[in-house]
Amino acid sequence: AQSVTQLGSHVSVSEGALVLLRCNYSSSVPPYLFWYVQYPNQGLQLLLKYTSAATLVKGINGFEAEFKKSETSFHLTKPSAHMSDAAEYFCAVIQAAGNKLTFGGGTRVLVKP
Amino acid sequence: DTGVSQDPRHKITKRGQNVTFRCDPISEHNRLYWYRQTLGQGPEFLTYFQNEAQLEKSRLLSDRFSAERPKGSFSTLEIQRTEQGDSAMYLCASSLVWGVRTQYFGPGTRLLVL
């Protein structure tokens, strides 16, 4: 069975500072990996995805993530936080032949002015 | 291209009542998924359809829950005899059937059972 662990349920950053959200997965075979963002009372919006091509993936809103197979990680970063980045972020995994996403518990980001 | 839509966005009901939610997927997507998200948690898979066929159901989908996709387009999720534990956000997603099958989510229906 696959699982996803997001370290830190809450992260507080200052506006303009680096945002780093951690995601580790367990899977018997290399999966596809996704980061989604959820704003209050809204659905999930796709930020970026890893599908076994380039290990450094660029997404929307200046976010990027790096797939590291040796560390079974897919951490999300943004060089400079903006107030609009305040939201909850979910890492998710799916097997290449799978049908359902398995999500981590989420990390809520607070951006301080 | 319109995204996934869900209706209603919010539903308040009394314990024991039945509720039905609707999801309209992205038009060219063959697959449709339902997830449930409780406060402070990540979404959990409930079920998915490929066209009109329901191909997988989670153990979370008790016998009080039923989902349909009668014509392979929109889907409905019905909860019978609601319980307070059913209070959650119900999310719908859709995807193509080939390739990476990236799932795109709707805005969700938030259910509160009193």
What does it look like?
The complex is a heterodimer of chains A (113) and B (114). Chain A has 113 residues and is mainly β. Chain A contains no helices and twelve strands. In chain A, a hairpin with a 5-residue loop joins strand 7 (56-58) and strand 8. Chain A is globular, with a radius of gyration of 13 Å. With 114 residues, chain B is mainly beta. In chain B, a hairpin with a 6-residue loop joins strand 4 (31-37) and strand 5 (44-50). Chain B is globular, with a radius of gyration of 13 Å. At the A-B interface, strand 5, strand 6, strand 10 and strand 11 of A face strand 4, strand 5 and strand 10 of B.
What are the main properties of this structure?
heterodimer, A: 113 residues, mainly beta, 6-stranded mixed beta sheet, 4-stranded antiparallel beta sheet, 12 strands, globular, B: 114 residues, 11 strands
Question: In summary, what is this structure?
Answer:
With 113 residues, chain A is mostly beta strands. Chain A contains no helices and twelve strands.
Query: Largest protein interface?
Result: A-B, 24 and 27 residues
What is the total tally of β strands of chain B? Answer: 11
Estimated structural class of chain A: mainly beta
Q: Strand-and-helix sequence of chain B, N→C?
A: EEEEEEEEEEE
Radius of gyration of chain B: 13 Å
Which sheet architecture does the biggest sheet of chain A show?
A: 6 strands, mixed
Q: What is the makeup of the main sheet of chain B?
A: 7 strands, mixed
Q: Describe the global form of chain A.
A: globular
Total count of helical runs of at least 4 residues of chain B = 0
Helix percent band of chain B = under 10%
- Tell me the overall shape of chain B: globular
List SSEs of chain A in N-to-C order. EEEEEEEEEEEE
Question: Which percent band covers the strand fraction of chain B?
Answer: over 45%
| Oligomeric state, counting identical vs distinct chains | heterodimer
| End-to-end gap of chain A | 41 Å
Q: Estimate the mean pLDDT confidence of chain A.
A: 93
The number of distinct helices of chain A, counting runs of at least 4 residues, comes to 0
